[in-house]
Design brief:
148 residues; alpha+beta; HIT family, subunit A; five-stranded antiparallel β-sheet; two-stranded antiparallel sheet; 3 helices; 7 strands; globular
Length: 148
């Protein structure tokens, strides 16, 4: 994604809330449907700081995320990581992986690292405004899939 002089509006990237976690579209969509699942309370530690109910909620969120993405884009695999290097708020990276190209509107997405680690992440061809449009579309599609 090309660099922008405008700060990222993370509110525009939030697409869903389930239990104690918020789904936020990652601004780099080199992996179509890549999200941040962010704990909805102040916490900057590791996953070990989650309460039992937050762990259970995370499990529910991962299942829901996979169900939604499977209906929308049919990923071949899902990768997850908890790094905390760029975003201090406790979160996990949810990265769908694709063995073949996927399309969204006029864009074609290709997982150039298929069969290998997803990082380092290639840059997306979507600019920030296009990522906001994807987030809005995903918000509507998630609502339809989850009936919310």
């Amino acid at each position: 994604m090309p660099k922008s002089n405008h700060p990222i509006d993370y509110q525009k990237l939030q697409v869903y809330r389930l239990g104690t976690w918020v789904w936020q579209v990652h601004e780099n969509q080199s992996y179509l449907g890549r999200m941040i699942l962010r704990l909805d309370r102040p916490e900057t530690g590791s996953l070990s700081q989650c309460t039992a109910s937050e762990w259970s909620s995370l499990h529910d969120n991962i299942r829901a995320y996979e169900e939604v993405l499977s209906k929308l884009f049919s990923p071949d695999r899902f990768n997850y990581s908890q790094l905390g290097n760029v975003y201090p708020q406790l979160h996990i990276q949810a990265v769908p992986r694709y063995a073949s190209k996927r399309n969204w509107q006029t864009w074609v997405f290709e997982d150039k690292h298929w069969g290998n680690n997803w990082a380092p992440t290639p840059r997306s061809t979507l600019n920030l405004e296009e990522v906001y449009a994807l987030a809005l579309w995903l918000q509507e599609e998630i609502a339809a899939v989850t009936n919310k």
